[in-house]
Amino acid sequence: MQIAVGGFQHETNCFQSNPTLYQDFVTAGGWPGLSLGADIFAAVAGRNLAIAGFMDRARFLGHEPVPLVWANAQPAGPVEDQAFDRISEVFIEQLAQYPSLDAVYLDLHGAMVTDSHDDADSEFIRLIRSFLSRHFARPIPIIASHDWHGNVSPARIAQLDLLDSYQTYPHVDMAATGARLCDCFTRYFPRNRPLARRMVKTDYLIPLTAQCSLSQPMKGLLQLRAEIAAEFNLVLGFTPGFPPSDIAMVGPAVFAYGEDQRAVDEAVNRLVTAIHNAESDFAREEILTLAAAKTIMRDHVLGGGVKPLILADSQDNPGAGGSSDTTGVLQTAIELSLSLPLSLSPSQRRPIVLALFYAPVVASDCAAMGVGGVYNGLINGIKIRGRIAALHQGEFIATGPMWGDSVMNLGTMARLDLVAEDDSDLGVKILLASQRQQPSSQAMLRILGIEPKSMAIIVLKSSVHFRADFEAIAERVRVVAAPGVNLANPADFPYKKLRPNVRRGPNLAEG
Ligand SMILES: [Zn+2]
Question: 90 CA to middle of ligand 1, Å?
Answer without folding.
Answer: 25
